[in-house]
Amino acid sequence: MSIDIKSPTFPESVADGTIANWVKKEGEGVKQDEVIAEIETDKVVLEVLAPVDGTLTKIVKQEGEVVNSSELIAEFNEGNVETEILDSSGKEDASDKKPVKSKKLGPAAKRIIAEEDINPDEVISTGKDGRVTKADLVNHINKTEDNDISKSQTATQNDLSFSDSRDEKRVPMSRLRATIANRLLSVKQETAMLTTFNEVDMQPIKELRSKYGAEFEKEHGVKLGFMGFFVIAAVQALKKFPLVNASIDNTDIVYHGYQDIGVAVSTERGLVVPVIRDADMLSLPDIEKSIVDYSNKAREGKLSIDDMQGGTFTISNGGVFGSLLSTPILNAPQTAILGMHNIQDRPVAIDNEVVIRPMMYLAMSYDHRLLDGKEAVTFLVSIKEQLESPERLLLNL
Question: Measured between alpha carbons, how far is 110 from 85 in angstroms, rounded to an integer?
Fold first, then answer.
């Protein structure tokens, strides 16, 4: 029976997508739920899965072509498929045969195993019921190949090589990178962005982590990081300064009665901002678990569009890359963004004495059309005070 393969149904915020990669070729046998193609949208990469066992008979939309929501992209014949994958000539491709044995594998995991020549029995599985996840395979590759990135990644910058120092290569921007570029340029042109700076003494939080970190991880199954404290501090400050939590819609100011905090995550495809929804209702362990979950999904390319929709305030951590000080750019239509930076031991004056403390510079960019300097500065000072006295976070001060 012939089946039409269509692109996913895009939400209203996504107009169309681009065929980024055909994982399967015409005439190739496909098992149910195996990835057939990848479609790149302005926000995420979506996987098109085989609805049943069968054969990909015709590719309608080629790589690089734009597709609309629920548009026909391929034709598929339903039928039994042997475990061995056949090439277009009908011959068995021995290079793609991998022993699955007792391990349970998802479609993405099977593809990586085939491409990277991995023995599944050598992989430590962490998925439900012993399933080998894509993250397990990435960790395995990183350990065995000295952090070499999987060849299945489509980041073209990793494929550039030059035989001569004056060679040039021209490659198209990915759809996500082009969208990021347009959004950043739009923010610079359409907002009155200004940045205020401060610094925070991280000694109290470091002491908390040192004293309770092991117990926290044992109790909640997640490490006690820094970002959770910043999210809670931001939530408390946003409640005090609701204008910072607002956004501009033409000539209207939209006040939000909730705090949805976006946490910027860097991936090989570009910067993405998954949103921790109703952060004011979550405990510190819940926030830390959300951050870890989103980080893993981002690295695996599994973030959904819903994961990144909305948000009333954003936190970006350039410190993980060693940044000492920077100016974060607004995540429109939000009013403000907080930038974290690297923690460095520096001499500071405390009680008229010079001491060495772990200091972090904070940067807050804000839309001056809505926020005056007073609100922005006092908001940032509120975050600083809470972080330097973590008990204030618990007492909601």
Answer: 12
Considering the domain architecture, whether residues 147 and 279 belong to the same structural domain is answered as no
One domain for residues 70 and 212: no
pTM score:
0.65
**Residue at which a domain ends, from 97, 128, 144:** 97
pLDDT value, residue 51 = 86
d(CA 106, CA 99): 14
Catalytic residue among 148, 278, 345, 372: 372
The question of whether 368 is a catalytic residue gets the answer yes
For the question of residue 372 being annotated catalytic, the response is: yes
Q: Domain of 132? A: 105-153
Residue at 166 is within a domain: no
Measured in whole angstroms, the distance separating CA 221 from the mean position of its chain's CA atoms is: 21
Structure tokens belonging to residue 294? 């989103």
Residues 81-122 pLDDT 10s: 654 444 444 444 444 444 444 566 665 677 677 767 787 777
Contacts of 131 (CB under 8 A, 6+ apart): 103, 104, 105, 106, 109, 125
Q: Structural domain tally of the chain? A: 3
Looking at 76, 97, 118, the residue that finishes a domain is 97
Q: 363: which residues sit within 8 A by CB, 6+ positions away?
A: 195, 196, 197, 325, 326, 327, 328, 338, 339, 341
User: Is 172 contained in some domain?
Assistant: no
